[in-house]
Design brief:
The protein is built from four helices and five strands. By secondary structure, the protein is an alpha/beta fold. The chain has one domain: Alpha-Beta Barrel (TIM Barrel), CATH 3.20.20. It has a five-stranded parallel beta sheet with strand order 1-2-3-4-5.
Protein backbone atom coordinates (compact mmCIF):
# COMPACT_ATOMS: atom_id res chain seq x y z
CA UNK A 1 0.00 0.00 0.00
CA UNK A 2 1.28 3.44 -0.89
CA UNK A 3 2.02 5.72 2.01
CA UNK A 4 0.05 8.90 1.18
CA UNK A 5 2.84 11.06 2.49
CA UNK A 6 5.24 9.63 -0.10
CA UNK A 7 2.97 10.95 -2.85
CA UNK A 8 4.89 14.22 -3.25
CA UNK A 9 7.95 12.14 -4.21
CA UNK A 10 6.04 10.18 -6.87
CA UNK A 11 7.50 10.31 -10.35
CA UNK A 12 4.49 12.01 -11.94
CA UNK A 13 6.05 11.75 -15.40
CA UNK A 14 5.36 7.99 -15.47
CA UNK A 15 1.73 8.72 -16.27
CA UNK A 16 -0.26 8.85 -13.03
CA UNK A 17 -3.80 9.59 -14.22
CA UNK A 18 -5.85 9.31 -11.02
CA UNK A 19 -5.35 8.83 -7.27
CA UNK A 20 -7.85 7.22 -4.90
CA UNK A 21 -7.69 7.88 -1.15
CA UNK A 22 -9.04 4.86 0.71
CA UNK A 23 -9.19 4.91 4.51
CA UNK A 24 -12.07 3.16 6.23
CA UNK A 25 -10.98 3.61 9.84
CA UNK A 26 -9.96 7.24 10.44
CA UNK A 27 -12.29 9.83 11.88
CA UNK A 28 -13.72 12.53 9.62
CA UNK A 29 -11.37 15.32 10.72
CA UNK A 30 -8.34 13.12 10.01
CA UNK A 31 -9.75 12.09 6.61
CA UNK A 32 -10.24 15.73 5.69
CA UNK A 33 -6.76 16.72 6.88
CA UNK A 34 -5.05 13.89 4.98
CA UNK A 35 -7.33 14.25 1.97
CA UNK A 36 -6.56 17.96 1.71
CA UNK A 37 -2.82 17.28 1.89
CA UNK A 38 -3.16 14.69 -0.88
CA UNK A 39 -5.34 16.99 -2.96
CA UNK A 40 -2.81 19.81 -2.67
CA UNK A 41 -0.28 17.47 -4.30
CA UNK A 42 -2.55 15.96 -6.96
CA UNK A 43 -3.84 19.38 -8.03
CA UNK A 44 -0.27 20.54 -8.70
CA UNK A 45 0.05 17.69 -11.18
CA UNK A 46 -3.44 18.05 -12.66
CA UNK A 47 -4.39 14.55 -11.44
CA UNK A 48 -7.89 13.95 -10.09
CA UNK A 49 -8.27 12.73 -6.50
CA UNK A 50 -11.10 10.36 -5.65
CA UNK A 51 -12.22 9.72 -2.09
CA UNK A 52 -13.35 6.22 -1.21
CA UNK A 53 -16.99 6.11 0.04
CA UNK A 54 -17.01 9.57 1.64
CA UNK A 55 -18.96 12.14 -0.34
CA UNK A 56 -18.77 14.51 2.63
CA UNK A 57 -14.96 14.40 2.64
CA UNK A 58 -14.84 14.83 -1.14
CA UNK A 59 -17.03 17.92 -0.84
CA UNK A 60 -15.02 19.32 2.07
CA UNK A 61 -11.72 19.18 0.20
CA UNK A 62 -12.99 19.83 -3.32
CA UNK A 63 -11.93 16.41 -4.61
CA UNK A 64 -12.81 15.53 -8.17
CA UNK A 65 -14.92 12.54 -7.19
CA UNK A 66 -15.60 9.42 -5.15
CA UNK A 67 -15.51 5.67 -5.43
CA UNK A 68 -18.43 3.73 -3.96
CA UNK A 69 -18.46 0.02 -3.18
CA UNK A 70 -21.56 -2.18 -3.32
CA UNK A 71 -21.62 -2.38 0.47
CA UNK A 72 -21.84 1.41 0.53
CA UNK A 73 -24.73 1.69 -1.93
CA UNK A 74 -27.46 2.27 0.58
CA UNK A 75 -28.40 4.44 3.51
CA UNK A 76 -27.68 4.01 7.22
CA UNK A 77 -24.68 1.71 7.06
CA UNK A 78 -22.40 2.59 9.94
CA UNK A 79 -19.34 0.75 8.68
CA UNK A 80 -18.40 3.18 5.93
CA UNK A 81 -18.34 6.28 8.10
CA UNK A 82 -17.06 5.41 11.50
CA UNK A 83 -15.31 2.72 13.46
CA UNK A 84 -17.72 3.42 16.33
CA UNK A 85 -20.83 1.24 15.78
CA UNK A 86 -22.86 3.46 18.13
CA UNK A 87 -22.73 6.29 15.59
CA UNK A 88 -25.31 6.07 12.81
CA UNK A 89 -24.14 8.03 9.79
CA UNK A 90 -25.38 7.74 6.23
CA UNK A 91 -23.45 6.27 3.32
CA UNK A 92 -23.71 7.42 -0.27
CA UNK A 93 -25.51 5.68 -3.06
CA UNK A 94 -24.77 6.49 -6.70
CA UNK A 95 -27.77 8.76 -7.32
CA UNK A 96 -27.22 10.68 -4.08
CA UNK A 97 -23.49 11.03 -4.71
CA UNK A 98 -24.18 12.39 -8.21
CA UNK A 99 -26.77 14.84 -6.87
CA UNK A 100 -24.41 16.11 -4.18
CA UNK A 101 -21.21 16.22 -6.25
CA UNK A 102 -22.72 17.36 -9.54
CA UNK A 103 -22.44 16.22 -13.15
CA UNK A 104 -18.72 17.01 -13.46
CA UNK A 105 -17.67 14.68 -10.62
CA UNK A 106 -15.95 11.38 -11.31
CA UNK A 107 -17.93 8.61 -9.63
CA UNK A 108 -16.76 5.02 -9.70
CA UNK A 109 -18.63 1.99 -8.46
CA UNK A 110 -17.34 -1.44 -7.49
CA UNK A 111 -19.30 -4.24 -9.17
CA UNK A 112 -19.12 -8.01 -8.88
CA UNK A 113 -21.86 -9.12 -11.25
CA UNK A 114 -23.12 -8.25 -14.71
CA UNK A 115 -26.34 -6.98 -13.14
CA UNK A 116 -24.45 -4.63 -10.82
CA UNK A 117 -22.37 -3.40 -13.76
CA UNK A 118 -25.46 -2.66 -15.83
CA UNK A 119 -27.16 -0.88 -12.95
CA UNK A 120 -24.09 1.25 -12.22
CA UNK A 121 -23.64 2.16 -15.88
CA UNK A 122 -27.32 3.03 -16.23
CA UNK A 123 -27.11 5.02 -12.99
CA UNK A 124 -24.35 7.23 -14.36
CA UNK A 125 -21.11 5.77 -13.00
CA UNK A 126 -18.06 7.14 -14.81
CA UNK A 127 -16.13 3.93 -14.35
CA UNK A 128 -16.53 0.48 -12.83
CA UNK A 129 -14.15 -1.30 -10.50
CA UNK A 130 -14.37 -5.06 -10.69
CA UNK A 131 -15.04 -6.63 -7.28
CA UNK A 132 -12.44 -8.22 -5.06
CA UNK A 133 -10.80 -11.54 -5.79
CA UNK A 134 -9.94 -12.15 -2.15
CA UNK A 135 -11.84 -11.03 0.94
CA UNK A 136 -10.27 -8.24 3.01
CA UNK A 137 -11.23 -6.93 6.44
CA UNK A 138 -12.09 -3.52 4.92
Amino acid sequence: MLNPFLLPRTNWSIGVTIVQYRDKISETADLIRTGQALHDVTEKHNVPLLINDRVDVALAIGAEGVHIGQDDMGWFKTSCYTSDPSLLITCPDLASARKLLGPQAIIGVTVSTVQEARAAAKGGANYLGIGTMFATPT
